[in-house]
Amino acid sequence: MTSSVSPGQSVDGAIDTLGLGRFQWRLLAICGLTWASDAMEVLLVGFALPGISAAFGLERGSVQATGLLSATFAGMLLGAVFWGWLADRVGRRTVFLTTVALGVLFGVLGAFAPTVAVLVALRFLTGFAIGGTLPVDYAMMAEFIPTAWRGRFLVYLESFWALGTVLVAGLAWALSTALPPAEGWRWLLGLAALPGLVGLLARLGVPDSPRSLLARGDTAGARRALERVARVNGVTLSDAPLLVPARPERVTPAALFSGTLRRRTALLAAVWFGLSLGYYGIFSWLPSFLRAGGLELGEVYRTTLLLALAQVPGYLLAAWLVERAGRRATLTGFLSVGALSAFVFLFASTPLAVLLSLAVLSAALLGAWGALYAYTPELFPTPLRTTGMGLVSAMARVASVLSPGVGALLLTGNLGVALGLFAALFAVAAACAWAIGIETRGQRLPEALA
After folding, report:
1. Over the stretch 295-315, which tens digit does the pLDDT of each residue have?
2. 446 assigned to some structural domain
3. Where are the transmembrane segments (predicted)?
4. Where on the phi/psi map is residue 59: left (φ > 0), alpha (ψ -120 to 50), or beta?
């Protein structure tokens, strides 16, 4: 099979012509493995907290316990901004590799922490490292996927979050039956870091993004990256030159707050903030909330595992809808269902009703995350794509830092206040998503500032 690139065709046209093949599926598997590992790292403190509390004598809802839950998110806040900015300047691949390596290192070290203070510091550093995978992985995926497949592939990548959630819940459950809680948490932290090591080794063979290389003036490097895609996909890239997109002499993050980007950046930041505060406010405390409700630790982990499996239908539906109804409508719809299901959870009076409302909430919020991750990179031009992704995801990290404190209301008898706030956040986020007013389905990625 042979395909060619027309003379003067853009890199987007080249990617579309080379088509979908083994390269893109391999990239999805590689990024997905690390994404699952990141999900484990982000969520595992919630699973490990009962054991950490037993080992260090922490009280339920204490400042130290809340600080542990917030430390990873605080690191991700700084990491998202720093690594996103750096990736637009030195290239996606460098950050693509560095962040995963550091995440594995600090994650493993956390398993040997002698004190709570050291553990908090190492969780912060782990968060700082994995915060970079958020903007970079999605920029890499978006920039290598043909236009017709981009939306669903970005949702597919986000769906690996459910895999990571299932893995960490299953691992926590298995360790809870084999070891006392005061010992099992160390194994949980250490083992959760190992998938990232496998992901790091797999990433060594991934080239830098041709769009990023072109934006930085490396035309030869961009062609080599496209030749790699063509070779793996079993097609041929013609010798026709690639068009280098026009770009201003200097592109700074300030451009995100000027011209046509100002409004979409602000609205996207609001969506990321609202969804993150509600999601982590509920699910970071969920194991402790279920434990406080009288469930045994094994039952807590089994229930959490079932809720993680409920995320899968949400992702699958989002992957279908983003290419049928569009990114904007899909995101708005899932956020609206999330707001409604949070209210239903508030009034659930039986164990079955609680489980079903939480399952719907879990599916709706993860469907919203999938649509948001598909939508966001398509709204920023190539020179600012990872910077923009880093900035708006940093707003999610701000919310994540706040979420343990807000979510603690679930354990202190303020269930109505907490869930009412979360439902309101999802509703406001839905309104902001709709107000963006731009549909990117079927559109090629913007290469330069408008």
Report:
1. 666 677 777 777 778 888 998
2. no
3. 27-48, 68-87, 94-114, 120-141, 153-175, 187-206, 266-288, 300-322, 329-348, 354-376, 388-411, 417-436
4. beta
For residue 38, give the amino acid letter.
D
Q: How far apart are CA 262 and CA 256, in angstroms?
A: 6
- For residue 5, give the DSSP letter: -
**pLDDT tens, 409-425?**
665 656 677 778 888 99
Return the structure tokens found at 390. 């880093």
Low-confidence ranges of the chain (pLDDT < 70): 1-7, 60-61, 245-251, 284-289, 291-298, 404, 407-415, 447-450
- Residue range(s) defining the domain that contains residue 117: 11-435
Tell me if 443 is assigned to some domain: no
pTM exceeds cut of 0.70: yes
Task: Please tell me the distance from the alpha carbon of residue 432 to that of residue 443, in angstroms, as a whole number.
Answer: 21
Give the other-Cβ count within 10 Å of 294's Cβ.
7
Q: What is the number of structural domains in the chain?
A: 1
The CATH number of whichever domain residue 378 belongs to comes to 1.20.1250.20
**129-141 pLDDT tens trace:** 988 887 788 888 8
Element at 365 (helix H, strand E): helix 351-375
